[in-house]
From TrEMBL:
One of its GO terms (molecular function) is DNA binding. One of its GO terms (biological process) is regulation of DNA-templated transcription. This is LuxR family transcriptional regulator. Residues 2-122 form the Response regulatory domain. Coiled coil: none annotated. Pfam families: GerE, Response_reg. It comes from Actinoplanes utahensis.
Amino acid sequence: MRIVIAEDDALLREGLALLLRAEGLDVVATAGTPAEFLAAVDAHEPDVAIVDVRMPPTHTDEGIVAARAARGRRPGLAVLVLSAYVEQTFATELLAGGAERLGYLLKERVGRVEEFLTALHRVAGGGTAIDPEVVGQLLARGRSDAGLGRLTPREREVLSLMAEGLGNTAIAERLFVTDGAVHKNIRAIFAKLGLAPTDRADRRVTAVLRYLDTTARR
């Protein structure tokens, strides 16, 4: 796995590189600006990019913009975006074009090494990894919607784990239930939200997040 890191905080940037190299991963380049990041993507053709949301010069959405540009230049590039705190608009904006090979984590998650590496490998493998805190806030913002209001507590739990990027088996293991029970809950969720179910986990996450974003903007 070839990795490029884009982070303007030198300490965190080098810390991430050391952590990943210690795990036997190949960090081919690090960058402190969006321009350096895109140049590294062109030069090294990485499999995964780890990108900070807020980068120079304005420290607003440069990381999101650069991540999109990188995926445009290198289709199939997996991108794991890091943010200091929950930025709901950026999260849903990033995922609007499809959630395959995309992740959005809070920087505090990096300190939980096992969770961070699990998310990184999931994204690199073609899946999705959304920080539980991001999912929780999106769900909280959409609670007034009639569709979400019809969900049972268990269905809410399943929806939350779906949005994090977990597949049916992983959800079953987390909730200590059978795969069949999870499948039944998912069918009920999609029926109540008016969303067509799909076997592709990344597509269903995209559908859920788009729905939540739509209800949150009403």
